[in-house]
């Protein structure tokens, strides 16, 4: 209550002042288009009315009774704050030119006006409306240009009053111009050409760094690509190119060109890029550590600025620059330690600080000209990109030099190595050669010996076969000889005129006689006399025993010699002699030779004669042995 009185007085004074001013601005400000004028900045030649209630439409505002409420615009921002209110502006143009070849354009450079409605007066006093804006699709504009442009349709010596209703997002500075068609077109073409060059170069640097990233696989180039993208994003949002060419039907994307986001991404990319840049020259854990800390702190401030306690923009920028300076200066110190002074890198950083300030504060009034103020950041970004590119080139050159030096050292080491290897190889070859010769000699010797051995072996085999053949032959001969001998002896005994002594050599005793008799008797086969069985075993004195009935048969049974009472060999001799036609011995002579009694000899001689008679024996044809088996009983 104490302060209520002075406050009221202050209010009263203010009211008087304001009212006075309003009274003074009763007549509208007029823009006179004199001869030779082709372009004129009109913002401070207009009047405005702030509609905080938002209830008035064009008919209300254009009514003669309303005109008193307009005030003269004395600042390009028109009025600060009241962002929710509609800002009405009045423009009265008086065309004093008489050329019919000129037409006039109203041009607004603030392409980021949220909503702008332009009202053209019709001859009948009504108004035609044209609405466009940053929040509306691009195609709604009458003239497809990044700025808001309107053809005034103002004939020579005509005077018209236009109304413009504006809704803002922020305290923006308005840049309104009136231009002739010629000026408008040449200005637009120049602007588009320069912007085209600007984006063209940035995209070339971007593509080049992308290529470097894919071919060298180094994140440094990827971070730089991100930085370029952030700057391109920033520029697209700033000049309206993005809205016109990239997302014309989705105006909500315009809101993503928010300075907070862009600035955050520019700083993020810069921190990562500069850390990697320093690391490529010299490894520094300190720089890595502080880079990540700076990113965390910046992120915290960024989130705070968006959702919590919004700092005043100058404070925010100062903090940001301080955050950036810590890793940046640490990086510079690390580089200085290894004698690397990259001026392009330092200058690029300088440009970056300027860009950050610009990105946040929309315009910085360095120059009088708002166009220069607005576009000043473009050459700065351009320079920054070029300087960072130079830094990258220098770094590539540096790495290349390091590579060349390392390569040279490697080549030297390789050469030395090669020489050593060569020496060792030579020695080794000599040794191998000597050893090979030795082995070859040994092998040749071995081969020769082998051949000798084989030859000897063959000879031995041959000899062996000859010996075995000889043996076989000998054996055969031996056998033949033996057989022959026996045959000869027997033949001799049987055929020839032997005396008793010779005969005794062939049949020396009883046994040999029995054997002969046995062989002669069972020459064909054996049949038992008793049972007729044909299997036998040999018994004593060349007898045979029947395997069935056990009958033992002497070889003399059923022969001429059966039951002979004198030695059988003498009987054999007697039979032999009886078969000799050249010898005719009497019983007496026989008794003398055989030392037997005469009667014995005579009896046996008779027996032989009987046997001869029985079988009708022919001395010429048959041997004496055929008589031996004659059975006389
Ligand atoms: Zn028998």
UniProtKB/TrEMBL annotation:
<feature type="transmembrane region" description="Helical">
    <location>
        <begin position="372"/>
        <end position="393"/>
    </location>
</feature>
<feature type="transmembrane region" description="Helical">
    <location>
        <begin position="261"/>
        <end position="278"/>
    </location>
</feature>
<feature type="transmembrane region" description="Helical">
    <location>
        <begin position="220"/>
        <end position="241"/>
    </location>
</feature>
<protein>
    <submittedName>
        <fullName>Signal transduction protein</fullName>
    </submittedName>
</protein>
<feature type="transmembrane region" description="Helical">
    <location>
        <begin position="313"/>
        <end position="333"/>
    </location>
</feature>
<keyword id="KW-0812">Transmembrane</keyword>
<dbReference type="Pfam" id="PF07696">
    <property type="entry name" value="7TMR-DISMED2"/>
</dbReference>
<feature type="transmembrane region" description="Helical">
    <location>
        <begin position="290"/>
        <end position="307"/>
    </location>
</feature>
<feature type="signal peptide">
    <location>
        <begin position="1"/>
        <end position="24"/>
    </location>
</feature>
<keyword id="KW-0732">Signal</keyword>
<dbReference type="InterPro" id="IPR011623">
    <property type="entry name" value="7TMR_DISM_rcpt_extracell_dom1"/>
</dbReference>
<keyword id="KW-0175">Coiled coil</keyword>
<keyword id="KW-0472">Membrane</keyword>
<feature type="domain" description="7TM-DISM receptor extracellular">
    <location>
        <begin position="191"/>
        <end position="393"/>
    </location>
</feature>
<dbReference type="InterPro" id="IPR011622">
    <property type="entry name" value="7TMR_DISM_rcpt_extracell_dom2"/>
</dbReference>
<feature type="domain" description="7TM-DISM receptor extracellular">
    <location>
        <begin position="45"/>
        <end position="178"/>
    </location>
</feature>
<feature type="transmembrane region" description="Helical">
    <location>
        <begin position="192"/>
        <end position="213"/>
    </location>
</feature>
<feature type="coiled-coil region">
    <location>
        <begin position="429"/>
        <end position="491"/>
    </location>
</feature>
<dbReference type="Pfam" id="PF07695">
    <property type="entry name" value="7TMR-DISM_7TM"/>
</dbReference>
<keyword id="KW-1133">Transmembrane helix</keyword>
<feature type="transmembrane region" description="Helical">
    <location>
        <begin position="340"/>
        <end position="360"/>
    </location>
</feature>
């Amino acid at each position: 209550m104490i302060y209520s009185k002075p406050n009221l007085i202050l209010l009263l004074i203010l009211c008087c002042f304001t009212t006075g001013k309003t009274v003074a601005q009763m007549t509208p400000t007029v823009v006179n288009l004199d001869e030779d004028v082709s372009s004129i900045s009109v913002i401070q030649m207009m009047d405005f009315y702030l509609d905080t209630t938002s209830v008035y439409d064009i008919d209300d505002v254009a009514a003669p009774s309303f005109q008193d409420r307009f005030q003269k615009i004395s600042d390009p921002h028109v009025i600060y704050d009241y962002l929710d209110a509609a800002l009405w502006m009045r423009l009265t143009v008086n065309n004093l030119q008489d050329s019919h070849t000129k037409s006039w354009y109203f041009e607004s450079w603030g392409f980021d006006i949220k909503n702008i409605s332009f009202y053209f007066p019709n001859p009948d006093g009504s108004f035609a409306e044209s609405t466009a804006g940053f929040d509306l699709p691009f195609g709604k504009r009458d003239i497809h240009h990044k700025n808001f442009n309107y053809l005034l349709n103002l004939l020579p010596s005509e005077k018209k009053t236009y109304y413009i209703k504006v809704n803002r997002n922020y305290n923006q500075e308005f840049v309104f111009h009136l231009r002739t068609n010629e000026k408008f077109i040449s200005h637009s073409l120049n602007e588009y050409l320069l912007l085209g060059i600007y984006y063209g170069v940035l995209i070339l640097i971007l593509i080049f760094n992308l290529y470097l990233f894919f071919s060298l696989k180094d994140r440094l180039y990827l971070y730089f690509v991100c930085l370029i993208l952030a700057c391109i994003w920033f520029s697209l949002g700033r000049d309206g190119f993005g809205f016109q060419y990239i997302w014309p039907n989705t105006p909500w994307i315009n809101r993503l060109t928010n300075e907070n986001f862009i600035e955050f991404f520019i700083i993020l990319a810069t921190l990562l890029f500069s850390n990697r840049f320093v690391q490529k020259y010299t490894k520094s854990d300190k720089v890595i550590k502080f880079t990540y800390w700076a990113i965390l702190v910046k992120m915290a401030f960024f989130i705070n600025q968006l959702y919590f306690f919004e700092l005043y923009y100058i404070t925010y920028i100062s903090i940001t620059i301080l955050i950036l300076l810590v890793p940046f200066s640490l990086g510079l110190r690390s580089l200085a330690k290894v004698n690397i002074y990259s001026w392009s890198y330092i200058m690029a950083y300088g440009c970056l600080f300027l860009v950050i300030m610009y990105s946040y504060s929309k315009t910085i009034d360095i120059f009088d000209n708002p166009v220069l103020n607005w576009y000043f950041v473009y050459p700065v970004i351009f320079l920054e990109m070029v300087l960072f590119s130079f830094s990258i080139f220098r770094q590539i050159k540096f790495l290349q030099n390091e590579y060349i030096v390392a390569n040279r050292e490697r080549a030297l080491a390789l050469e030395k190595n090669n020489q050593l290897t060569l020496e060792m190889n030579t020695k080794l070859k000599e040794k191998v050669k000597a050893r090979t010769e030795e082995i070859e000699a040994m092998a040749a010797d071995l081969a020769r010996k082998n051949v000798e051995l084989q030859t000897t072996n063959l000879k031995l085999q041959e000899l062996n076969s000859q010996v075995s053949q000889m043996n076989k032959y000998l054996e055969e001969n031996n056998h033949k000889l033996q057989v022959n001998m026996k045959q000869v002896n027997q033949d001799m005994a049987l055929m020839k005129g032997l005396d008793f002594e010779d005969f005794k050599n062939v049949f020396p005793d009883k046994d040999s006689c029995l054997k002969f008799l046995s062989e002669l008797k069972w020459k064909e086969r054996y049949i038992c006399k008793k049972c007729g069985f044909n299997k036998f075993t040999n018994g004593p004195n060349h007898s045979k025993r029947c395997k069935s009935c056990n009958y033992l048969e002497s070889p003399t049974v059923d022969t001429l010699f059966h039951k002979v009472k004198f030695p059988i060999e003498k009987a054999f001799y007697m039979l032999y002699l009886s078969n000799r036609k050249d010898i005719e011995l009497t019983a007496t002579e026989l008794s003398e030779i055989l030392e037997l009694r005469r009667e014995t000899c005579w009896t046996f001689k008779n027996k032989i004669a009987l046997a001869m008679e029985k079988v009708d024996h022919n001395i010429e044809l048959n041997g004496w042995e055929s008589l031996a088996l004659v059975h006389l009983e």
